Amino acid sequence: MHPNTLVRGAIAAIASLTLGLVRADVSLHSIFTDHAVLQQGRPVPVWGRAAEGEKVTVEFAGQSVSTVAQDGRWSVHLKPLKASAEGRTLQVRGNNTVVLTDVVVGEVWVCSGQSNMEWPMSASFEPAADIAASANPNLRLFTVTKRRSPVPQTELDHAPHAWGFASPEAVRKFSAVGYYFGRDLQPALGVPVGLIHTSWGGSPAEVWMSEDTLEDDHLYARDILEPYVPSLKTHEAAMSKWRAAKAAAEAKGEKFTQGAPWAPWRPAELYNGMLRPLMPYAIAGAIWYQGESNAGRAWQYRSLFADMIRNWRRDWNQGDFPFLAVQLAPWDKNRKRAIADITAKPVESDWAELREAQNHVAATLPRVGVAVITDVGDKDDIHPTKKAPVGARLALLARTIAYGRAVESSGPTYASMGRSGSTLVLNFNHARCLKTSDGSAPKGFAVAGKDGVWHWASAEISGTRVRLNSPQVPHPIHVRYGWDDFPVLNLVNGAGLPASPFRTDSFKGLTRN
């Protein structure tokens, strides 16, 4: 072969490689797939990657928007879209063309939190009939792969992600709370609903927050960020001992069954790995089931939970979108107690303080709601399996807070207190047809005088009020309702929604520094 032929071949190969680099394929972010749901009624960001300077055009629903890639990335905004269940094509053209099919427009909700949000339909209460009847092309599901990251990510984990229809196969492994929420919301709205599930069992709230948000508060820096380094060192020491014990057992041919020590949660790591990559996908709002891992720091949760919501809203840059939380379900940490022991006397409770923190945030931030589920807890299991009522109550909150529908979405909530002699008279909101779920007298009310000693009170309903008396407290001042890890309660309104636990005192409690 002539030397010039080799040279020409080498030049051609280099030119081909260079052309390949210049003509890099345009691509979409992995949140965009076939069967996706785009948010109606607001500008819709669409983004991805392309070669530097490459012209990119996005076409959907009669719109055509172009931009030029910079630093390997591109982004455009579609003008607000009208809801449509008609599956249409979304096309992205650059040096190549990407085509998504069956893209619809409706309402998109993020479903996040810890294990009670992660809990799948297959492990929920009597799920077979609901799973079998779950097929709905207008309810679509997307699950984010679990990933921890020390730094903010822009892409989802490399595992394949895809939108899909609600179906028995898909729903079986999807978040039960998320599915039931969507199942109730979709027909109520009459438009497609998309659910993005991103949760991780056991995760505390601070791992779903950005590091800069935590750094901006000196108390978070002191109480959350700074303790992480020594906790990591402790973990590393424990891992070293575990590996040594495992190696010693294997050397002797013995079976080693001890599990590896759990790594401490790194603040911001799930925000970085599982939430930040979703932004700025257009959404309607978020549902949130979390708090169990923060109950020991319930007083801190008053600010932490509020700042987490502000953090999400700031970084999503879509205003004060609705944020709907699930109040902690009843659970008896001391599983050996019988119901008679639980109701023997009023007690202090960090879980009650966490519920109070959730209510506090809902009362102080706009468009935040709390779904009360005091009637569907499990005394002996932190994971109550009855998820259908949870999703249904979140859907009711969404209909009122997000969509302005005239439906009752709240159980009775404490409004004010009066006195008639030795009787305290409580006034409630959302108290139409106030009653008890079992027809007996109201349970779970305790009163205290100046001494701060709590005693159970006898309660009776009078219209939208509850009257309280206790022979042990002739001059009652303070009231608590449902103040326990596992409160035994029965006060509901005409919609069958349970009253939220509350207190009128400001005693220090278990978690306030």
Structure description:
It is a single chain. Strands 2, 4, 5, 7, 8, 9, 10, 11, 12, 13 and 14 form an eleven-stranded mixed beta sheet that branches. Helix 5 (176-189) packs across helix 13 and helix 10 (298-316) packs parallel to helix 12 (350-364). Among the domains are: 27-199, Sandwich (Immunoglobulin-like), CATH 2.60.40.10; 223-264; 413-503. The protein contains 13 helices and 24 strands. The chain has 513 residues and is an alpha+beta fold. Helix 10 (298-316) links the parallel strand 12 and strand 13 (323-326).
Offer a quick outline of the entry.
The protein has 513 residues and is an alpha+beta fold. Helix content is 28%, strand content 25%.
Tell me what portion of residues adopts beta-strand conformation: 25-35%
Unreliably modeled segments? 1-23
CATH topological fold name of one domain? Immunoglobulin-like
CATH structural architecture of one domain: Sandwich
Number of strands: 24
Please identify the top-level CATH class of one domain. Mainly Beta
State the major sheet.
Answer: 11 strands, mixed
Mean pLDDT: 94
What overall geometry do the principal axes of the alpha carbons give?
A: globular
- Helix count? 13
The computed structural class is: alpha+beta
Question: Can you say what the CATH homologous superfamily of one domain is?
Answer: Immunoglobulins
Radius of gyration, in Å, reads 27 Å
Q: Tell me the span between the first and last alpha carbons.
A: 84 Å
Helix content: 25-40%
